[in-house]
Amino acid sequence: MNAIVIYKSRYGSTKAYAEWIAEALQCKAVEAKTVRAEDLSEYDAIVYGGGLYAEVINGVSLITKNLDKLEGKKLAVYTTGITPLDCREYYEGEVVEKNFKQGMLDKIKLFNFLGRMVVAELSFPHKAAIKALKKIMSGRENPTEMEKLLIELCDADGDFTDKSAIWELVDFVKGA
Ligand SMILES: Cc1cc2nc3c(=O)[nH]c(=O)nc-3n(C[C@H](O)[C@H](O)[C@H](O)COP(=O)(O)O)c2cc1C
Question: 74 alpha carbon to ligand 1 midpoint, in Å?
Answer without folding.
Answer: 26
